Amino acid sequence: MQDRSDDSVVEKMNADGNAVAKANDQTILCHVGRETDAHYGAVNTPVYHASTILFPTLAAHDAKQDARVRYGRRGTPTQFSLEDAVSALEGAAGTVLTPSGAMAISTALLAFARAGAHYLIPDNVYGPCRHCCTEILKPLGVDVTYYDPAIGAGIADLMTPATRLIWMEAPGSQTFEMCDIGAIARVARERDVITVIDNTWAAGFYLKPLALGIDISLQAGTKYLSGHSDVMMGTLACASNIFPRIKDFAQRLGVCVGPDDAYLVNRGMRTLAVRMRQHNESAFQIALWLQSRPEVLKVLHPALPDDPGHFIWKEYFTGASGLFGFILKPVERSCLAKMLDDMKYFGMGASWGGYESLLIPTNPAPLRTATAWRPEGQSMRIHVGLEDTADLIADLEAGFERLAAAERKLANSMRRTL
């Protein structure tokens, strides 16, 4: 599948506010946020462990509100370097860091919450977002309506004078429907409604929501930005009219991230471009292979030409990540266990976006309220990591063989009992 990530080349700013030469994201990610002269020539911004920041004079202390580094909770050069890198990648006026993707979600939702406000949330939204709406927002008096992700400009029909925020997730992280980002953004702008999109799947690399008029591009930096499955992080990349509010709200909540975590995610971002291209290529190959398998009813990957969301994906995205889904023919749980328990390269675990491949069964149905999820088989979520594609296909093939053997054994056992 063609990667179009270099199609858009824009001028970015470094940490000093100076223009970086016009370049594509791969080059920008290697250089933005680095101030080597300020750190004795070190290529990477060091880890600053700090709470108290000392000022040499009373005058400096009195003027500390103007100092970028003034208290550990408000950030040090370690956190600032990551904020600058994310802002450059997303084309944002500024970025707020949070200790996890879930915290980024709750921060964005709560920042605009008022009793009587109305939010529009897609029915395929990530579980913690729905839980925040149900368990935190509703008791605060926020009315939430869940909408069909395919609604497009029809979302105008669900809006009320109290509508304050529209959430998007493209694609859904379990069912992979696409929403028409541009159409929803246009409707929202006409009515002065805040828009937020969960951009974790595309990592800010294959989708630029702020250029489409979205106010906040949210990511679980735990996933592709980090890329190594060893750190928790959330990012809120904001448009200029929104950034001061999100930053102030997060500060008042006491939201901050540890410098070691910021360092790890910043280091991971330096290789984001090459990792995303490999995820893109390998996942597409495996998606095509899965389409040919008799055990598979359907593959859920928006980059596939026959996927229902393909044309929307092609309009807004320049590539795809390593995460997608597929539907197995109906299968007994014990037989599925035979397939999954002995996978050599595919692990079973929450999260995704790391260098390693993952494969888990899913059941999105209980999280749906506005639409029905009827896959007619066992839904699966796969994350294709950075291993050799041939090795991953061989691992899946061996798993399907174990599945078939288990099903034959079960069928024979059932016949003997009749």
UniProtKB/TrEMBL annotation:
Pathway assigned to this chain's UniProt record: Amino-acid biosynthesis; L-methionine biosynthesis via de novo pathway; L-homocysteine from L-cystathionine: step 1/1
Reactions the enzyme catalyzes: L,L-cystathionine + H2O = L-homocysteine + pyruvate + NH4(+); an S-substituted L-cysteine + H2O = a thiol + pyruvate + NH4(+)
GO aspect biological process, one term: transsulfuration
GO molecular function: cysteine-S-conjugate beta-lyase activity; pyridoxal phosphate binding
SUPFAM superfamilies xref list: PLP-dependent transferases
Record key words, sorted: Lyase, Pyridoxal phosphate
Cofactor(s) required for function per UniProt: pyridoxal 5'-phosphate
Cross-referenced Gene3D superfamilies: Aspartate Aminotransferase, domain 1, Type I PLP-dependent aspartate aminotransferase-like (Major domain)
Entry-linked InterPro entries: Cys/Met-Metab_PyrdxlP-dep_enz, Cys_b_lyase_bac, Cys_met_metab_PP, PyrdxlP-dep_Trfase, PyrdxlP-dep_Trfase_major, PyrdxlP-dep_Trfase_small
Chain positions with N6-(pyridoxal phosphate)lysine modification: 223
Keyword match Lyase: yes
A Pfam family recorded for this sequence: Cys_Met_Meta_PP
EC number(s) recorded for this UniProt protein: 4.4.1.8
Family: Belongs to the trans-sulfuration enzymes family.
Protein name as annotated: Cystathionine beta-lyase
